[in-house]
């Protein structure tokens, strides 16, 4: 029988979502689906999420979305975007019967309007309003498959890991999460300037090691300024985006979650630059780890670069900040709106390096 994985945790007998979960369980089971996490008692981490994806044939996200649920949903969409072979032909549906998913959907809508997400994400994260609609969504994908994501492989992956030590006079490593697809010249220019300024201030630059979009420009800016530049990537994404010149160290990993872990482990501060769904995924991962006081994030700071959108009164990450509103007073991240202020923030030693 096909296996569907349900999101969510059941918080005791008084959980308001207990009845909707029971109806969802009955609908799926009665129509031939076996169910993982039916009791809402399984935890997913960076180290096991790819295995959970491989084990499942479809994914259903329930009302009452937690931060972890938001992370998992956007992670699956990023998997679709990057042609993760383990997601081929697997459906994802969100039972959107409450408001808990609205901030994420609003954020993705905004990124789609800007052009940071090129696909209609709602064709991949399908919104349903009843268990029967959820069933119809995932059964349709089983019969018809998923839409073409619109990306083609550019090359074969012939990369391997290599390492060169960071210069002894460097202060720290700064990880930049940003778009690998945006082509707006103003964002590309700022990405290049950020990479250059990191090198000039003796700060190592860590990234997703892509050649395209803002990410490619950050790497190029740091490398052309003579900086120490490191990154991590995955074989099937390298086939889509290539591997940049000028890397000092490179960590090849088997999946996007091990890739994030390598980047986090080898960095001291994090900059969330303009990006798309992948950048949202990475920000949520940082927040989850930092809030849990995970050793990977102890003493490390997160800076969101909410630069103004040209011709608008809005900041690039305004909708992300709405999503993160519940955590704004927890000292988990800071916000900068100008590149100079961003660099000054990065250089501060107000946390343990």
Mean pLDDT: 92
Task: Using the 3D structure, state the CATH architecture of the largest domain.
Answer: 3-Layer(aba) Sandwich
Name the poorly predicted regions.
none
Helix/strand structural class: alpha/beta
Radius of gyration computed on alpha carbons: 20 Å
CATH class of the largest domain: Alpha Beta
Strand order of the largest sheet: 9-8-7-6-10-11-12
Q: How far apart are the first and last residues' alpha carbons, in Å?
A: 50 Å
Run of helices and strands: EHEHEHEHEHEHEHEHEHEHEHEH
Describe the structure.
Helix 1 packs parallel to helix 5. The protein has two domains: 3-144, Rossmann fold; 172-347, Rossmann fold. It has twelve helices and twelve strands. It has helices spanning 18-30, 49-55, 67-81, 102-114, 131-144, 185-200, 213-224, 235-241, 256-265, 277-291, 318-323, 339-347; strands at 3-6, 34-36, 58-61, 91-95, 125-128, 172-177, 203-207, 229-233, 249-252, 269-272, 301-305, 334-336. Strands 9-8-7-6-10-11-12 form a seven-stranded parallel beta sheet. A five-stranded parallel beta sheet has the order 2-1-3-4-5, sandwiched between helices. The radius of gyration is 20 Å and the shape is globular. The model has no long low-confidence stretch (mean pLDDT 92). The longest helix is centred in the middle third of the chain and has 16 residues, at 185-200. The chain is α/β, with parallel strands linked by helices.
Brief summary:
With 353 residues, the chain is an alpha/beta fold.
